[in-house]
Structure formats: C-alpha cells, structure tokens
Write a structure and sequence with these properties.
By secondary structure, the protein is of the alpha/beta class. The chain has one domain. It contains nine helices and six strands; from the N terminus they run ββαααααααβββααβ. Strands 1, 2, 3, 4, 5 and 6 form a six-stranded mixed β-sheet that branches. Strand 1 and strand 2 form a beta hairpin. Helix 1 packs parallel to helix 8, helix 2 runs parallel beside helix 6 and helix 3 crosses helix 6.
C-alpha cells in the first residue's frame, strides 16, 4: 500500500518577523517519515555544499520573465521554495528505476530524447548555454528551467494550467503521472493523506536566496507532531534515533506561529487557477 504525504515549505524572516507558506505539494508512493528525514538531510547537504546559497536566481529570472505581472501574485520567496521542489524532482528523476522507463521505445520516440532534442535546437537558435556546475542535480534543475524558457513557455499553458502544474511539468519528459512529488492540478487535493511534513527555511537578512537555518516537522494526517503524539511507539523511537544520527533540526508550526506573524495570502486560495 502506497504512503501519501503533504509537504509544506515555510520561509521565515527573522529580521522582519514574518512567515510565509512559500510552497506546498503532494507526494505519492514512499512518503514515510523516515524518507522525509532523508529529504531534510539531502537538502541540508546541498546547502552545505553550496555555502548555504543555491542559484535560485535561475528560477526567479524565469518566473519574472514568463509570468510578467502574475509574478507579483506569487507568495513571498516562492522562487526559493520552488527551487527546492525542483531539486527534489531532479533527485526523483535520476532514480535508476525511473530512468529505464523509456528503454523499450525506439530512440526517436522516447519522450526524454524528443525533449532533449527540442531543447538543444532551441538553445542553439537563441545562442543560449546552460549554466554548468559539478553537481548533476543542479544541472538537472538548470535543464528544467531552460525547458520552461524555450520549449514549454508559460504562454502555451497559462490559459488552462496553474503555475504549479506548469512548474511540475518542466521537471518531467512527458505528462504521465507516476509515483513521486507533484505540484498543482496534477496532484490530488489535500485529502486522503497519511502524513504532513513541514520544512522551515530561515533566510539571510542580506540575501533572501541564502539559507541560515533549515528545519523539519513530522506530522500525522491531522497535522499533529508525530514525536508528541505517536501511536506506534516503536516507530517513534526509531525516528528519534534517526533524528539524532542525522543531527536533524526539528521545529514546529506551533512554534512558528508564536515566533512569526503570517504574511497575507494572495496565492494559495486561487493557486489552482493561476
């Protein structure tokens, strides 16, 4: 039986004393608490490898260019949170079991080949080169963003799709829904879930794309902290041991409500329409 999780990314600004829900999405298939801790560890590692500063401007520039006035309707720090989502999608797409799903097709009919060919032609015509770095996952995110710029621009989808669904579509070769992380209408509504995972991102006061702290909260389907209200005590003890082993920083939405004032929501109430 598959395990389903709901993910929420909160950005916290200590200098201005506010919190914002910057990204949320659904994950189907392997959304167990232990794997959510692995995802925290994965993000923490990526931040440390890049001096706590990811190249979020790649995505921010795309959103500004493609969305125009609609950009101002996005939640504060959406680009940072959506960049982390794309990193998670890049990791999922590099899974060997996902990479072989087109192997039985002739090369010219493989969606990944067709998309790569179209992108290569478009970049050559526009004199554009992908930003390159040693990290294969960051290279994948750069590829996703180039797809949005040259092959699947927002103007082709904006009348029928949400921004979230468009961003998700940039991260896969075709439009087939498989197990993994999904944003926008491509995901089921926030119902029938097993767990809620909340990631908390403290931004640097002088650089909103730099992360000063990064924490996680593991919750049951009601939003209750698993470590406070776990029914399976054996599983909870295992999670506590893993938290200690990973040195994972824990935080809670309840604490965030006490420490930070919320920003006005101008996006999530209408997210499926934008």
């Amino acid at each position: 039986m598959s395990t389903r999780g709901w993910y929420e990314y909160y950005v916290l600004d200590e200098q201005n004393n506010y919190r914002t829900l910057a990204m949320q999405f659904f994950k189907w298939g392997d959304a167990v608490p232990s794997f959510a801790l692995d995802e925290w560890f994965f993000f923490q590692g990526k931040l440390q490898e890049n001096a706590d500063r990811l190249p979020v401007e790649w995505l921010d520039d795309l959103l500004r260019d493609q969305l125009n006035d609609l950009y101002e309707s996005l939640p504060p720090h959406f680009s940072l949170a959506a960049f982390l989502f794309m990193l998670q999608r890049a990791q999922e797409e590099q899974c060997p079991l996902r990479r072989i799903r087109y192997n039985e097709l002739p090369l010219e009919k493989r969606p990944d080949y067709c998309l790569g060919h179209a992108l290569g032609e478009a970049m050559a015509l526009n004199g554009y080169e992908l930003p390159h770095c040693e990290d294969s996952l960051l290279n994948s995110v750069a590829h996703f963003i180039a797809v949005g710029r040259f092959v699947r621009p927002w103007k082709y989808y904006g009348l029928t799709w949400s921004v979230l669904k468009w961003l998700h579509y940039l991260t896969q070769a075709d439009d087939i829904v498989e197990m993994g992380s999904f944003a926008g209408k491509i995901a089921v509504p926030r119902v029938d879930i097993d767990f809620i995972y909340r990631f908390f991102i403290w931004i640097n006061p002088s650089d909103a794309f730099r992360v000063d702290r990064f924490a996680i909260e593991l919750c049951d389907y009601r939003g209750m902290n698993l470590l406070d209200d776990g029914e399976d005590h054996g599983e909870i003890e295992g999670l506590k041991k893993k938290i200690k082993r990973l040195n994972a920083e824990m935080y809670s939405f309840a604490q965030a409500e006490r420490d930070f004032a919320p920003t006005e929501d101008r996006f999530w109430g209408q997210a499926l329409h934008f």
